Amino acid sequence: MKRRVHVLGTGGTIAGAQPHPGHYGYTAAQYGIDWLLNAVPGLDRLATLSGEQVVNIGSQDMDDAIWLTLARRVNEVLVSPDIDAALITHGTDTLEETGYFLSLVTSSDKPVVMVGSMRPATAISADGPANIYNGVAVAADLGAVGRGTLIVLNDEIHHARNAVKTGTSNPSAFSSMSRGLAGITSAGRVEWFERERHRGSRALRFDVNGLDSLPRVDVLHAHASMSIDLIDAAIAGGARGIVVAGVGAGNMSAGAIERLARAALHGTVIVRSSRVVSAMVLRNAELDDDRLGFVAAGDLNAPKSRVLLQLGLTTTSDPQRIQSMFDQS
C-alpha cells in the first residue's frame, strides 16, 4: 500500500509568479498548495497525498508565531495513524531556520521533509516541481523514518540541522557544510548515505505546545568598528539572549567582549557563533568562555544558534545548561 503524505504549504518562491514571462523579479506566495501539487505529474504513483495551506508568505516574513503554529500542526498531523509523513513547501530564505526549529520540536519519528525552489513557479525551467516530486519520494521512503527533519532541493537530501543557504539564485543553493548530505534523490529514486550520529540530538526535543511566543534572541554581526550601542539596544529591547556572528572563530572587538560579558553577568545569555560560512567555534578557544560566561556554538551558524537559544531559554537561562544543549546539537 502506498504511504500517506500530508503536505503543508507555507508559500515562498516555489509558489511565486513573475509579472510576465522572462521577468527577473517575481512575487512569492501567489499559488496555493493544491495548485502546486496539481502542477507535478505522477505524484500519485509515489504516495497518497492530502494537503492544506498553513500560511502563504514569502519566507522573509516567517516569524516565531508562524513557527509555533506550524510545529503544532505538524505534530497533530503526525500523531494520526492515517498519516505516514509530512511534506512542507517553504521559501528558501529562512528554510534552514524553520527546518532546524522543526527538527527540535517535532515529537514523532515519522519523516518531515521540507522543499522549496530558487525559481518561481512561472519561470522557464522552474525547479519547484522536481523538488516537490523528489520531496514526496523521500517522505514516502521508509529510510527517512527516524532521520529527523530533512530538506530536499536540487536532487540532494540534507539534514535540516546541517543545511545552509549558500547561494542567491542558482538552484544549487544549499550545502551541508561540515557534516555532509543525508542522501541524494533523482526522478523519485532515493539513495541514502550513512546515518548521521546525532550525538544525542534526537533526545534534544522541546515541547512548544503550551507556548504562544518564544523568548527574544537577537543576532549581531561582528565586523571592524563594531558598534557597541547595538548590544545595548538589543538588551533594552528585551532580548534575553544575543548570538554574535563573530569574526573568525567567534571573536569580536575588545569593547564588544567587555559589554557582552557585563550583559552575561546580569543574565543575558551570550552565544558565540561565526560569520564564516564553514566554521567551528570551540569553547575557550579564542576567548575564555568560562571567565566571560559565554556559550560556544560549535559548528552551528548564527541563525541556527538563535533557534536553539530561543528554545533553550524556554527551559533555562543557565549558560552551562545552554552550553550542554549546543554540545548535543
Structural summary, described in words:
29% of the residues lie in helices and 21% in strands. With 329 residues, it is of the alpha/beta class. It folds into 2 domains: 200 residues, Rossmann fold, CATH 3.40.50.1170; 112 residues, Rossmann fold (3-Layer(aba) Sandwich), CATH 3.40.50.40. It has an 8-stranded mixed beta sheet, sandwiched between helices. Strands 11-12-13-14 form a 4-stranded parallel beta sheet, sandwiched between helices. The chain starts with a strand and ends with a helix.
Write a concise synopsis of the structure shown.
With 329 residues, this protein is α/β, with parallel strands linked by helices. It has helices at residues 33-38, 43-46, 64-79, 95-105, 128-140, 229-236, 254-265, 289-292, 302-312, 319-328; strands spanning 4-11, 48-57, 85-89, 112-115, 149-153, 156-159, 163-165, 174-176, 183-186, 189-192, 217-221, 241-246, 269-274, 295-296.
Count of extended strands: 14
Query: Can you tell me the CATH architecture of the largest domain?
Result: 3-Layer(aba) Sandwich
CATH superfamily of the largest domain: L-asparaginase, N-terminal domain
Going across the major beta sheet, what is the strand order?
2-1-3-4-5-6-9-10
Q: What's the CATH topology label of the largest domain?
A: Rossmann fold
Helix segment tally: 10
SSE topology string: EHHEHEHEHEEEEEEEHEHEHEHH
Number of domains: 2
What structural class results from the helix and strand content?
alpha/beta
Helix content percent band = 25-40%
Globally, the shape reads globular
What Rg, in angstroms, do the CA atoms define? 20 Å
Largest pleated sheet? 8 strands, mixed
- CATH domain class name of the largest domain: Alpha Beta
Regarding quaternary structure, what we see is single chain
> Mean of the pLDDT scores?
95
Instruction: Give the N-terminus to C-terminus distance in angstroms.
Output: 36 Å
* β-strand amount: 15-25%
Low-confidence stretches: none
